[in-house]
From TrEMBL:
<dbReference type="Pfam" id="PF21906">
    <property type="entry name" value="WHD_NrtR"/>
</dbReference>
<dbReference type="InterPro" id="IPR000086">
    <property type="entry name" value="NUDIX_hydrolase_dom"/>
</dbReference>
<dbReference type="InterPro" id="IPR015797">
    <property type="entry name" value="NUDIX_hydrolase-like_dom_sf"/>
</dbReference>
<dbReference type="InterPro" id="IPR036390">
    <property type="entry name" value="WH_DNA-bd_sf"/>
</dbReference>
<dbReference type="GO" id="GO:0016787">
    <property type="term" value="F:hydrolase activity"/>
</dbReference>
<dbReference type="InterPro" id="IPR036388">
    <property type="entry name" value="WH-like_DNA-bd_sf"/>
</dbReference>
<keyword id="KW-0378">Hydrolase</keyword>
<dbReference type="InterPro" id="IPR054105">
    <property type="entry name" value="WHD_NrtR"/>
</dbReference>
<dbReference type="Pfam" id="PF00293">
    <property type="entry name" value="NUDIX"/>
</dbReference>
<protein>
    <submittedName>
        <fullName>NUDIX hydrolase</fullName>
    </submittedName>
</protein>
<feature type="domain" description="Nudix hydrolase">
    <location>
        <begin position="18"/>
        <end position="170"/>
    </location>
</feature>
Amino acid sequence: MDDYKRFATEGYRVYVPNISIACTLLGFHDNKLKVLLLRWKGLDKWSLPGGFMKQDEDADEGAARILKERTGLDVYLQQYHTYTSLNRFTIDEPSQKKFKDTFGMEVLKGHWYDKRVIGIGYYGLAEYAKVTRIELDMITIDSRWWPVDDIPENMLFNHHEMIGGAMKALQRDVAHEPVCLKLLPSKFTMAELQCLYESILGYSLDRGNFRKKMMNAGILKDMGESTTRKAHKTPHLYSFDVRAYKKALQSGIIFKLQ
């Protein structure tokens, strides 16, 4: 019995049939906020990393396990929404046929994984350079980082909606949670920090005002280094004063639309 058939026939013993978890894993690369997606075998469709919650774990443990299995990393996670739409887990007939042709198994009506499924949404934050491998499995054939403003249309289930929900939650949380600390490398330029904020918030910030706000907040350390030695004015590298950053987040680091 191959892995898929074993999952189809015996999975309900290990997993909670009606509760799934989907993780919007975000990274910051080339001045863009990106989301990790997986392409399914035979379907030409993409999904978020996810799966059913196990019988012996809670949702937080399940989300951590899912991303640990995919990336090998312990990722910063926040649960942001529970999705209860009646048809969110529906697979259309053409996809069902491809599913059968690819895996040799039908998505049978009334089967344990064909019933209504509640989806718990998490977003995860990772330093892009540290995600050096993505583990594929019996149903996935490819992985790719997509810019959050350019994700593919051919998404499975309601994962397009879930990415949108994760971004709204991130826009809310960036003022009070250590979001930038989790996404940026240990050393970064002021321009990179501003670009990250803009990518999350969805609007531009005045360069001078941004720099002034960051320096006045006292949350950055000037590392006394530059990114290159070629130009007369080279960007300085900064790092977070973690204690000061977390203290500032208690009051909120808030930028208004300009």
